[in-house]
Automatic annotation (TrEMBL):
InterPro entries: AAA+_ATPase, ABC1_TM_dom, ABC1_TM_sf, ABC_transporter-like_ATP-bd, ABC_transporter-like_CS, ABC_transporter_C-like, P-loop_NTPase, TMD0_ABC
Provenance organism: Leptonychotes weddellii
Biased composition (Gly residues): 835-845
Gene3D superfamilies reported in the protein's UniProt record: ABC transporter type 1, transmembrane domain, P-loop containing nucleotide triphosphate hydrolases
Membrane topology: Multi-pass membrane protein
A Pfam family assignment: ABC_membrane
Family: Belongs to the ABC transporter superfamily. ABCC family. Conjugate transporter (TC 3.A.1.208) subfamily.
Protein's recorded name: ABC-type glutathione-S-conjugate transporter
GO cellular component entries: endomembrane system; membrane
Length: 1087
């Protein structure tokens, strides 16, 4: 409320004829009273309605009447009563005829209505589930400082004795405002009936108060609980994914609209943040100009200097804070985009038609996810760059024109003269980058080939030859990278020195063109500040344009992929309900199918009816269309004409087994609920129990990449077990017996597929070349050239002497072949020995409990301790040797990298950085001496000397900067070469078991992404670290020389900051999910 006292200027509040009070205080009382009374209400009445509309549209539930809300309610009602009493007293005095200025009635009335509105907002927030409010936090913050300062000044002037009631009410009001402000810093309980579903792993930001969100305090708690939170994470689809995932086959326009619909609120908030940040950015030069002007005028009151210093500090701090909020919003948006578009690409993969799969290989999809999505994500931070940097340049030139007049035009000339050099460097660097990327791709392909075929290479002793080839390509790659880094150093130096060159030319032209132009501190240091901003705009603009162009190309590639032909969802009329015994389960009527639209049909005039519970065998010569028939039932083929109908759930076993890089139990269960007894029966029937018994961790043993540690027969039986475990109604089996030994195939057929197997009672369509199982089939279909040649029971087809008899004759088997003796093809032996190693074909032994690691000796197996199937200690435990380490990076890791760089080179780099920083300090000090030179007859007599020395120091700084950055990058290349050689040598010399246990994606990630980080990212981060550290040391030295007492404050702050940073730095897990991302792409049919 208003500070009660005498009016601002006597009884006539706005009496301009009276002299203004002297500026002996920080600010005059009239200004403080006016600002303190009107600023908080204007703030709330402007933002309040917008805030009300927002919370009405984004309700989150209903908050219970907590103790926090009751305290806010009591304090608010007390404030309303105080304001009401102030209005009542003013009206009572007016009624009694006591002269009162209008402000004594207007100010309390305004605060009364505003306080009532604030209480309405508090009540509405509780109804809409708002636990902490930023609008009210800002309102209570504004209600205290200015009124408190005004009240303190009036109290010092003795105003308390003139009107004690108003002063006591004001002090009480300010105390209540402080209490409300403290309560606004707290967070309320969660909503009682939340509209959004509860998340198992909620973000800590949702539980944080408004000050914690603004200052990012909640991140500290998040970092401490990161490991525990990661254990409870789950793959729940976030709401941000929904708009994208609904646009699976969209063109570029709808896809762009979907992205905008998902990200517009976050993007607009980030844009608003960067605009506010720029306001503070450009307020710093103006405040610096006013501060230097204050220092040059000894008659100015001292409070103005304190005020300007505080404003400069607040502007810099708020600029940094708002900029970090912009970066945070951008990073959140980047993660959402990456998650949504990656999920969209993988969902598209699962619905691609056969023709689309021919034009989009697995590598193309992986490139879309790893390269194009990454570029699109990285471009978010640059989207505002093209227009905001132009505004930066305009404002900077306006500043320079105000400071230096027409001399500012020389800045444009210097910047334009540097453009050809930068364009030339960029063009040459692009050529070397293309060469570097080409060599990197060649090395990656060769490395991938070597790792995939490591068994063959080791068996022939070819490690040395392949190592030589890889290192030769690696040498060419590092040569191109070395040249590119040198050009990059020249480019960085040109950008860094451009500020100095422009300043030198500006100062020289300004001081030499006119006699009245002299150099002073305001012109010198404000110009340098503005030129620094202008240089950032010059650097940021080409990066922004390049990022936007690359994002456009990547976006077009993604849109083209999303527009590929999909399978027709209406090709198969499927029903989830199971059909009763004897009812038609599968029916095809006059079906004609093709692999793609417009191509020649591969299946003609198919008419097929399969009742529930039948075993249908499909046979035919190679290329007859057997697998195509199953694809047609799955909806993978383009239906030209006819109809297909299936009742019940479908399970499919492909001809080429697909396994995941997970444990055995996860492969079999495949996100189904674990049933130990059923799992045991499935493993026993699929002849997998003897194999599982020999595994080191039983069913929890990790399967290598693409089943590297399994034989072909084991992979096929694992794929069959996954389908059997699902308990589907319809089974489509594409020759699952082809990769099995004869006795194993007979066991699997009898225990799983045959009339007495686990699948009896289900509908089974078996594509097979094993003719010995045909007599046990209920119905046989013979295909020739994509059409049904004949079908019927086995004995009937034998009597017809048709196509089936022709197949038997071609295979060299008699027509009356006995059951279990005829087989169309010669089956390869399982090189690792398949099932049945001493294991009876019957069910599991009675009384045997399901153990994971049974003993090798049957006499001692009962005494050995097994692990239960649902044991969480073994579930998901990696058995490979290549696992991700979590936690803080150890000092030995840094020392290993420094030793790879070399101790002499490290010391030399530090010496070069020290030299260039000394040159920078001397340059700034010499500029200050130039600004302090006295003027004689309107001119500075030593301007030419000062300019030449200033230019010389700048050139020395540029040379030192180039040498130091170049040596850092060259040292990084040296370290990268040595570390790569050690990595390659260690991996190649590893035993075969290492490659069986380690996912292929992890190894490939070491040689691709992580090697690229060592090549490019680490040297760049080291360069930035050294530049900032030595720059900070220069600032500390300058401040300490001018103000020695500043060291008392600087040193504790540095120690506190260093301790905080060291405590928070932890290694972020960087395990590449590439081996997981390739899995659904390569096994999309099974998925």
């Amino acid at each position: 409320m208003a500070v009660p006292a005498e009016p601002c200027v006597g009884q006539e509040v706005w009496n301009w004829t009276e002299p203004e009070p002297t500026a002996a205080h920080l600010l005059n009382v009239c200004f403080l009273k006016t600002a303190g009374v009107w600023v908080p209400p204007m703030y709330l009445w402007v933002l309040g309605p917008i805030y009300l509309l927002y919370i009405h549209r984004h309700g989150r539930g209903y908050l219970r009447m907590s103790l926090l809300f009751k305290a806010k309610l009591v304090l608010g009602l007390t404030l309303i009563m105080l304001c009401t009493s102030s209005v009542s007293v003013a009206l009572w005095r007016i009624q009694r005829g006591t002269p009162q200025a209008p402000e004594f009635l207007i100010h309390p009335t305004v605060w009364l209505t505003t306080m009532s509105f604030a209480m309405f907002l508090i009540h509405t927030e509780r109804k809409k589930g708002v636990r902490t409010s930023g609008v009210l936090f800002g309102y209570w913050l504004l209600c205290f400082p200015l009124p408190a300062t005004s009240a303190a000044q009036l109290a010092l002037q003795g105003g308390f004795q003139s009107d004690p009631f108003y002063h006591l009410s004001t002090y009480l009001c300010l105390s209540l405002v402080v209490a409300q402000f403290v309560l606004s810093c707290l967070v309320d309980h969660p909503p009682f009936f939340p509209e959004d579903p509860q998340q198992s792993n909620p973000c800590p930001e949702a539980e944080a108060s408004f000050p914690s969100r603004v200052m990012f305090w909640w991140i500290s708690g998040c970092a401490k609980a990161r490991a525990a939170k990661r254990k409870g994470s789950c793959g729940v689809e976030t709401p941000e994914m929904q708009p994208l995932l609904k646009q699976e086959g969209s063109q570029r326009g709808p896809l762009l609209r979907a992205i905008w619909q998902m990200s517009r609120s976050t993007f607009l908030l980030a844009t608003f943040s960067i605009i506010i940040c720029d306001v503070f950015r450009f307020s710093v030069p103006k405040l610096l100009s006013l501060f230097l002007e204050f220092m040059g005028n000894p008659t100015t009151p001292a409070w103005k200097g304190y005020l300007l210093a505080v404003l400069m500090f607040l502007s810099a701090s708020l600029q940094s804070l708002v900029e970090q909020h912009f970066m945070y919003r951008v990073k959140v948006l980047q993660m959402r985009l990456r998650t949504a578009i990656t999920g969209l690409v993988y969902r598209k993969v699962l619905v691609l038609s056969s023709a689309s799969r021919k034009v989009s290989a697995v590598g193309d999809v992986v490139n879309l996810v790893s390269v194009d999505v990454q570029r699109l994500m990285e471009s978010v931070i640059y989207l505002n760059g093209p227009w905001i940097t132009i505004i930066w340049m305009i404002i900077c030139f306006v500043y320079l024109w105000q400071l230096l007049g027409p001399s500012a035009l020389t800045a444009i000339a210097v910047f334009m003269s540097l453009l050809p050099l930068n364009f030339f460097i960029t063009k040459k660097r692009k050529q070397h980058q293309e060469e570097h990327m080409g060599q990197k791709d060649s090395r990656a392909r060769l490395t991938s080939c070597i790792i995939r075929n490591m068994k063959t290479i080791k068996s022939h002793g070819w490690e040395g030859a392949f190592l030589e080839r890889i290192l030769r390509i690696r040498g060419q790659e590092l040569g191109a990278l070395r040249t590119s880094n040198l050009l990059f150093s020249v480019s960085l130096v040109s950008f860094q020195v451009s500020t100095f060159l422009v300043a030198l030319v500006l100062f020289a032209v300004h001081t030499l063109t006119a006699e009245e132009n002299t150099m002073d501190a305001e012109k010198a240091f404000v110009t340098l500040t503005v030129l620094t901003i202008l240089n950032k705009a010059q650097v940021f603009l080409p990066f922004s344009i390049n990022a936007v162009v690359q994002a456009r190309v990547s976006f077009d590639r993604l849109a083209a992929f999303l527009c590929l032909e999909e399978v027709d969802p209406g090709a198969v009329d499927s029903s989830p309900s199971r059909c009763s015994a004897g009812e038609t389960c599968i029916s095809i009527h006059d079906g004609t199918f093709a692999w793609s639209r417009g191509s020649t049909p591969c299946l003609h005039r198919i008419n097929l009816t399969v009742p529930q519970g039948r075993l249908l065998a499909v046979v035919g010569a190679v290329g007859a269309g057997k697998s195509s028939l199953l694809s047609a039932l799955l909806g993978e083929l383009s239906k030209v004409e006819g109809s297909v109908r299936i009742k019940g759930s479908v399970a499919y076993v492909p001809q080429e087994a697909w396994v995941q890089n997970t444990s055995v139990v996860e492969n079999v269960c495949f996100r189904q609920k674990l049933d130990p007894l059923w799992l045991e029966r499935v493993l026993e029937a699929c002849a997998l129990w003897p194999d599982v018994s020999s595994f080191p961790a039983g069913v929890h043993t990790k399967i290598g990449e693409q089943g590297m540690n399994l034989s072909g027969g084991q992979k096929q039986r694992l794929s069959l077990a996954r389908a059997v475990y699902r308990k589907a109604a319809v089974y489509l089996l594409d020759d699952p017996l082809a990769a099995l030994d004869a006795h194993v195939g007979q066991h699997v057929f009898n225990q799983v597929i045959g009339p007495s197997g686990l699948l009896h009672g289900t509908t089974r369509i078996l594509v097979t070349h094993a003719l010995h199982v045909l007599p046990q089939a209920d119905w046989i279909v013979v295909l020739e050239d994509g059409a049904i040649a004949e079908m019927g029971p086995y004995q009937e087809l034998l009597h017809r002497k048709g196509a089936l008899v022709g197949l038997l004759d071609a295979a060299g088997h008699p027509e009356d072949s006995r059951d279990g003796e005829a087989e169309l093809t010669t089956e390869a032996k399982d090189p690792r020995g398949s099932a049945g190693r001493g294991r009876p074909a019957g069910g599991p032994k009675s009384g045997r409990s399901m153990k994971l690691v049974p003993g090798k000796d049957s006499t001692t197996s009962e005494t050995q301790t097994g692990v239960a199937l649902d044991d969480p200690e073994w579930a998901g435990r990696p058995t490979g040797e290549d696992s991700v380490q979590d936690g803080r990076v150890k000092a030995t890791i840094y020392l290993t990298y420094l030793r790879a760089v070399g101790a002499p080179l490290c010391l030399y780099v530090l010496f070069l950085f020290l030299c260039q920083q000394v040159a920078s300090f001397c340059c700034s000090y010499w500029l200050s001496l130039w600004a302090d030179d006295p003027t004689v007859d309107g001119r500075q007599t030593q301007a030419a000397l000062r300019g030449w020395v200033f230019g010389l120091l700048g050139c020395l700084q540029a040379l030192g900067l180039f040498a130091s950055m170049a040596m850092v990058l060259l040292g990084g290349i040296r370290a990268s070469r040595l570390l790569f050689q050690r990595l390659l040598w260690d991996v190649v010399l590893s035993p075969i078991g290492f490659f069986e246990r380690t996912p292929f994606g992890n190894l490939l990630n070491h040689f691709s992404k992580e090697t690229d980080i060592v090549d490019v990212d680490i040297p760049d981060k080291v360069r930035s670290l050294l530049i900032y550290v030595f720059g900070l040391l220069e600032v500390i030295l300058a401040v300490t020389v001018v103000t020695p007492l500043a060291a008392v404050v600087i040193l504790p702050v540095l120690v506190l900051y260093a301790g905080f940073q060291v405590g928070e730095i932890e290694q972020v897990p960087g395990a590449s999910p590439r081996h997981l991302s390739q899995s659904p792409v390569s096994g999309q049919d099974s998925v």
